[in-house]
Amino acid sequence: MKIRTAGLVAAILVSAGVADAPAQGFTPDRTIEFMVHSGPGAGNDVFARSVQGVLEKLKAVPQNIQVLNKTGGGGLVAMSYLAEKKADTHLVAVFTSIWFVNPQIRKQAKITMDDLTPIARLVLEPAVMAVRADSPFKTTKDFLDAAKQNPGKMKQSGGSLASRDNSYRFLLMKNTGADWQFISMKSGGERVAALLGGHVDMMIMEPAEALEQIRAGKVRVLATLMNKRLPSMPKVATLKEQGFDVPEVPQARGFVGPPAMPANVRAYWEGVFTKMYKSSEWQGFLKDNLYEDGFLIGPGLNKFVADYTATMRGILKEAGLKLVR
Amino acid sequence: MEVLAGLAQGFGIALEPMNLFWCFVGVFFGTVVGVLPGLGPSATVALLLPLTLQMNPTAGIIMMSGIYYGAKYGGSTTSILLNVPGESSSVVTCLDGFEMARKGRAGPALGIAAISSFIAGTVGVVLLMLIAPPIAEFALRFGPPEYFALMALGLSMVVLLAGRSMIKALLSMFAGLWLATIGIDLFTDIARYTFDRIELMDGVNFVVVAIGTFAVGEVLANLGARSSGQNFTVPKGLRNLMPNWQDMKDCRFAFFNGSLVGFFVGVLPGAGSTIASFVSYGIEKAVSRHPERFGTGAVEGVAAPEAANNSETGGALVPLLTLGIPGSGTTAILLAALILWGLKPGPLLIQDHPQMFWGLVASMYIGNLMLLVLNLPLVPVFAQILRLPGYVLYPVILGVSIVGVYSVDQRLMDVWLVGGFGLLGYAMRRLDYPSAPLILGLVLGDLMENAVRQSLMMSNGDISILYSRPLAATMLLFTAAILAGPMFRQFNSWRLKATEQEA
Amino acid sequence: MIAVGAWKSVDKSQLVGALLLVALGAFVAADAWRWPYLTKDGPGPGFFPLWIGIALIVLSGAQIVVQVATSRDGKDAGRTSWKGAAPVLAGWVALMVAAALIRPAGFVASYALLTIFLIRFVFQRSWTAAVTVSLTSAAGFWVLFVKLLRVQLPAGPWGF
To answer: Could you tell me which residues are beta bridge partners of residue A128?
Structure first.
């Protein structure tokens, strides 16, 4: 508890420092490490390596970048490792939503996002609700009505209980009184295959994978789960437009530093990511992946961290998971 | 006709000097990371991802795929020479490959592994080229009940892996099934058998168990014998270091069996090359006229799993290229790379970018040939490693094992675990418990548990879903037949004994 | 029913092994009991572990019976030999010590020490052989894995 308060104080001091004292001559002088909490090839590992690729192309950092994989415990191993490297200047980590979720539901977790030094939020991942193209459901209402009439008969494929897929399911079930099954599957490949093979009725997808399936006539999208329509799918209405008052569950990725990262170092990294954000390479990356631009640094990011933690807390409680802190 | 035109176009692309160069770089790196345990193709492909983003997509995918199938070639080397599985899929290769090495036939084992890899790799590409779209549609019929049946079929292989005692083989398998339950339960988020260690929340990595029980166990057993001299005979003369005609003849069916099993299992997004290698080994033993030779250095026991894990690569590319669905860790990175190149992977990928698809297919024919040319001359060289005296060789194996398990997840905990499993492996050797069923149970255990629970969630608890769908039912019938085999034999021997006594 | 003579001839190592497996099964099953066995849609998280535990107990029980029965028939395949268990244990302990040294001293140094120990004391070769092999192979590991392949192995305070 004491550590966390100290971390918070440090974070506030650091962000205060950013405003009036820009990078005071910090430059990396050895290999920089980008830590990710999963093995090589997983989504956030690929994300880290893509950022690495863009930064190298832009020559935005004077040293080599190496991706460090610290897997285990759904991010908890990586978070503890980062906390051990207090005030390290050459180590930053990719954070994803599970960095906010898992510390709240795992009693083994010793570190939360409050202890660390957020640097930049880079992307927001949108989501859409998809069914097979030959499915009888044409709108969100069709699906939800069917799920209401046959409780427990409709099926959705998705990830773990704490995943966003399941959060949306709980929010929709609460809002409408419908009830359907959530079938957890380990890999993204299995989930899509289960939908395309007709073994499940619905799935929450990322637009990048959905768009191609739509173009091939395999999948139909019922709704955008974000607050606004997606530029890539202008015809697909949001849940709100279809009359379902369900809050958006954001999914963010960005970079976070170890606890008590010196102010000038944080400012340095903010500068690096700002430079990257403005490049055409980065904008191209966002476009190819159909990510939403989520660039945010400084006090705004600190507020996001606090708000997001609170939002996820509410949703997890709603979803029936036991909170530990 | 369309295929021939496409292929001609593909060879035109693949034979461009730069593409040829990248293909070579890919298969060369693939072989290297394949030989070294722990370093897998997915880690290497991920490492090279930032670099490939600056290449043109066709050259990039040619190189990355080269790493993927090249690693499968290399994987057998340490399995055969040191009993250290180089890749997860080459555990099965240890069973007969290392026994062959012990008998002074390391060269032929390595040679047959290279040849069967080449044949199966090529068959995999042929099938990818000819039947990718229909086979991908077929694979979609595999839902959780079908995966359950497939895993049951895989687990039934235990009766074929048993040595003298079926009970011991089953005990070993159930211990493996238990290890598979360690970690966070996917469906309820409950931590099972994690002893409150966050490192165990993702489960026990099976590379750790395999390297521990096979490699470290083997080294410990040799410390006991204080066999510090040269333990392996390495025959002189190139002829004895290569498979002979008889070996090739013995492996005819294994090439065929492994190629097909590997390809079809590879197409399924929820299976994997480890299952393919176990199943093809089991089939090979089941149809063999000399099943008793398996486990003592049967050359078919090397050829079948090696064929399976190489044609698996061709299979795994099917859902990726025709549906945009990744079926394995490595293909997931390839998918990400395709997105980053702006190619929009999905069902229309081949239609939109035929030059990339055909270029890749043609490069895989060339790459497989390169691998054969690269690997066969290395066989006599690698076989010389066994000339090292035991006191040099065994510490090196321990070092390789430590690096191997550490580099999977960069966790020291895994080094402790590999030591623990090493001691277990030694005890199992002494007490005559087979270790292959342990690995089988560990690999298939959680896949099977997940499949059962997913199926019953789909049917709201109605068990009939597991056997009422035709595909699942067919596989379960096969399973029953395999399980009934030894019982029938047992019964028969009792009957014979009884009639003898009566007479 | 078992004659004392038969009991004496039972392979004790096999017996201990099977009893350890009974214990493992009991632990697995007992722990599984804490988790839901069935949910409204079929097996819960406790279902499979419970049956795995039970199978372990039953099978190892069967193994004990078979062991006793075959030794009474005099058909025992030959007793387990623990000849050479002492150097094995020494080697294993050395491996674990080396594992413990990896964090403070780095991989290369712990591997070098492990190798010296094994060659000098377990294989009982000369100090010269031990030191030469150890230094060469440790250097080889460093060049191959750390320098060429960039495996992130833990380093000691001296940088490797």
So the answer is: A205, A224
- Write down the pLDDT at residue A1: 36
Phi, psi of C88 (to 5 degrees): -60, -45
C66/B167 Cβ within 8 A: yes
The answer to whether A68 contacts chain C (CB < 8 Å) is yes
User: How far does C47 lie from chain A, in Å, by closest CA?
Assistant: 17
Predicted local distance difference test score (pLDDT) of residue B212: 93
**β-pair partners for A181:** A155
Which of C48, C73, C98 is the endpoint of a domain? C73
Residues of chain C with C-beta less than 8 angstroms from the C-beta of A181: 41
Which residue ranges in chain A fall short of pLDDT 50? 1-23
The reply to whether A8 touches chain C by the CB within 8 Å rule is no
Distance CA B197, CA B183 (A): 10
User: Pick the residue with more confidence: C69 or A295?
Assistant: A295
Contact C150 A66 (CB under 8 A): yes
Domain span at C64: 4-73
Map residue C79 onto helix, strand or coil: coil
Cβ neighbours of A152 in C, within 8 Å? 41
Distances (CA, A) of B241 to B92, B306, B382, C1: 22, 19, 10, 57
- Which one of C31, C41, C56 has the shortest CB-CB distance to B175? C56
Topology (CATH) of A2-125+251-318: D-Maltodextrin-Binding Protein; domain 2 (3.40.190)
d(CA B71, CA B26): 9
Q: What pLDDT, on the 0 to 100 scale, is given for residue A6?
A: 43
* Helix, strand, coil share of chain A (percent; to 5): 45, 20, 35
Same domain assignment for residues C37 and C17: yes
Enter the pTM of the model: 0.89
The 10 Å CB-count burial string (b at 16+, else e) for A38-59 is bbbbbbbbbbbbbbbbbbbebe
Do the Cβ atoms of C141 and B430 come within 8 Å? no
- Chosen domain end from C26, C45, C73: C73
- Nearest CB neighbour to C152, from listed A68, A152, A181: A68
Q: Which residue of A has its CA nearest to C151?
A: A68
- Chains with ≥3 Cβ pairs under 8 A against A? B, C
Could you say which residues of chain B have pLDDT below 70?
1, 226-231, 487, 489-503
The model's pLDDT over C102-150, given as tens digits with 9 standing for 90+, comes to 999 999 999 999 999 999 998 889 999 999 999 999 999 999 888 887 7
